[in-house]
Amino acid sequence: MSDIYSEDQIAAAERLLAKPWEFVRGIPSLEFLTPADRPEIAFAGRSNVGKSSLINAVANRRNLARTSNTPGRTQELNFFTVGAGDFYFVDMPGYGFAKAPKAKVEAWTDLIKAYLRGRPTLRRVFVLVDARHGLKDVDHQILSLLDEAAVAYQIVLTKIDKLKQGALERVKSDVEQAIAQHPAAFPVVLATSSEKRLGLAELKASIVDAIA
Ligand code: GDP
Q1: Is the pTM higher than 0.90?
Q2: Phi and psi of 96, rounded to 5°?
Q3: Residue among 43, 46, 47, 48 to mutate when testing ligand 1 (max atoms within 8 A of CB)
Q4: Which end of the chain is more exposed for a tag (fewer CB within 10 A), N or C?
Q5: What are φ and ψ of residue 135, in 5° steps?
Q6: Least confident of 55-59, 69-73, 149-153
Q7: Residue 122: which of 84, 163, 150, 80 has the closest Cα?
Q8: How do the domains of the chain map onto residue ranges?
């Protein structure tokens, strides 16, 4: 079932993440940041990468991430708790809008930089990458930010149902090669599809592993 995790780890992660998820709040700027009082993981990715779909798939809820995708919330850090609230799940605002005004991009970058630098409880950022496109310039910029902030991160390929096996293997190995240069990158690249529900067990186990 998984090359990296045992059946017990997979089952424990399933159980934990099947508990109720609750939206805590959206953080528009750092003065509203929730206290760093428990472990936290985050999902990041270009807009349209499939982040909301993947969060919904992981949470096994139809509309959870819609909270983050409603107008006004897309530029915020959206905080969720799971179960007893032992950790935070953070949905980071999507980046790389082709037509975003410069001021908006700058505001986003400032918020993210400040968040990444000042969050000792942030255990791992899952950087979502569309399997059809691989790593784009904006993704590399985020990886550099994460390296600078010394925040651990892991690449998660999305929408792998759109690729044939050979193409998927190629993009996976390209990404693995690219991240080998990045000190903060977790060497294992995950491959997922929300639509076909592929790779979810390993992703869940990685999340639980990161907060353990
Ligand atoms: P977000 O902007 O990153 O939150 O992306 P969304 O989750 O809203 O998804 C963007 C688009 O990609 C939507 O049209 C989704 O239906 C589609 N999409 C998301 N996940 C998958 C997937 O696993 N497979 C396929 N084929 N399409 C997907």
Answers
A1: yes
A2: 80, 25
A3: 48
A4: N
A5: -80, 125
A6: 69-73
A7: 150
A8: 7-211
